[in-house]
Amino acid sequence: MSGEEFRSGEAIANRLSISRASVHNAVRQAQGLGVEVYSVRGRGYRLAHPHSWLDAEQVEAEAKDLGYRLHVHDQVDSTNSRLMALGQVGAAHKTVLAAEWQTGGKGRRGRTWLSPLGGGLAFSALWRFNRTASDLSCLSLAVGLGLVRALRQLGLADAQLKWPNDVLHQDRKLAGILIELHGEALGPSMAVIGVGVNVRLPEALRSEIDQPVTDLLEGLGEAVDRNHLLIECLRQLDGVLSHYEEEGFAGLRSEWEANHAFHGREARMIAAQGESWRGRVAGIDEAGALLLDTETGQRRFYSGELSLRGVSA
Ligand code: ATP
């Protein structure tokens, strides 16, 4: 189906050697998965928006200097789960697994990440570190910075970070990160770095998400090519992860703080058990802990069972 012109059900059926009823059913199914399709009697079907499908060859060729090996799947439960399984049976450093449609995307602490068919960028990258897992506690911060750099390259100048693992645009969530680690106590370690970026998030899906969200279409005012987005993310991740492997997080800290949406703002830190602390965000320390100036002094929060939320002053 095209994004530019209508194609009749008959033409699509002939092209695919299926019945017109099957075309009709497939269109209904695609609509149910969040793909917007115009259907006009007498003219046929047209995608509401031109679509850029992922192209492993193009991405590998354009990012050749970086040495990634990319696998693109039509559908997976979770790119992280799939890649973790491959990593445990020896998949190489810099293996990347992307999916057109992720049916069971994961957030932190068992939460879910929703992405429409072809309307988001969902991928995971496997990175092998000569470091212990406890040395990797700031990895999600470094990855977030890589994503902000990538979005900047694509023209979104004001993407920001939210401690510890989100990317926001105008205080709404644009991208999420989920890192899963595997390794021996003394290293080396394997990290599976999952990234979800909203490219075009349909209204129906937005209403299922319990916090303000946005997509790149809104942020940039035009559709972004998902292959270019993936290439830029891989390029910038290469930069921050190579830096992390060699020098740790310290050298990235001031840039991270400069891009933190909550820097200097009143916020609330909420623990999973419900306890919460209110104060002004003072920054992060070298270990990536968030520093909050509260009425009773400065508190330091290490990532884990904690969520940062804004409060109106
Ligand atoms: P925290 O601040 O604790 O990290 P979070 O809400 O960002 O909180 P994550 O585990 O990072 O939690 O991400 C999962 C959450 O992200 C879901 O519970 C939902 O609120 C939100 N979410 C799910 N899908 C999307 C999406 N496509 N775009 C933006 N937000 C989403």
CATH overall fold name of the largest domain: BirA Bifunctional Protein, domain 2
Apparent shape: globular
Rounded to the nearest angstrom, the radius of gyration is 21 Å
Question: What is the N-to-C order of secondary-structure elements (H for helix, E for strand)?
Answer: HHEEHEHEEEEHEEEEHHHHEEEEE
Q: How many angstroms separate the termini? A: 50 Å
- The computed structural class is alpha+beta
Listed once per kind, the bound small molecules are: adenosine-5'-triphosphate
Largest sheet: 7 strands, mixed
Strand order of the largest sheet: 3-4-7-11-10-9-8
| Number of E-state strands | 16
In the predicted model, the low-confidence regions spanning at least 5 consecutive residues are none
Q: Output the CATH class name of the largest domain.
A: Alpha Beta
Structure explained in plain terms:
This protein is α+β, with helices and mostly antiparallel strands. It folds into three domains: 9-47, no CATH class; 56-258, BirA Bifunctional Protein, domain 2 (2-Layer Sandwich), CATH 3.30.930.10; 266-310, SH3 type barrels (Roll), CATH 2.30.30.100. 29% of the residues lie in helices and 31% in strands. It has helices spanning 9-16, 20-32, 56-62, 79-88, 139-153, 203-206, 216-220, 226-247, 253-258, and strands at residues 37-40, 44-47, 69-76, 95-102, 105-106, 112-113, 120-129, 159-162, 166-169, 172-183, 189-198, 266-271, 276-284, 290-294, 297-301, 306-310. The strands form four sheets. Strands 3-4-7-11-10-9-8 form a seven-stranded mixed β-sheet, sandwiched between helices. Strands 15-14-13-12-16 form a five-stranded antiparallel β-sheet, with no helix packed on it. Helix 1 crosses helix 2. The longest helix has 22 residues, at 226-247. The mean pLDDT is 91.
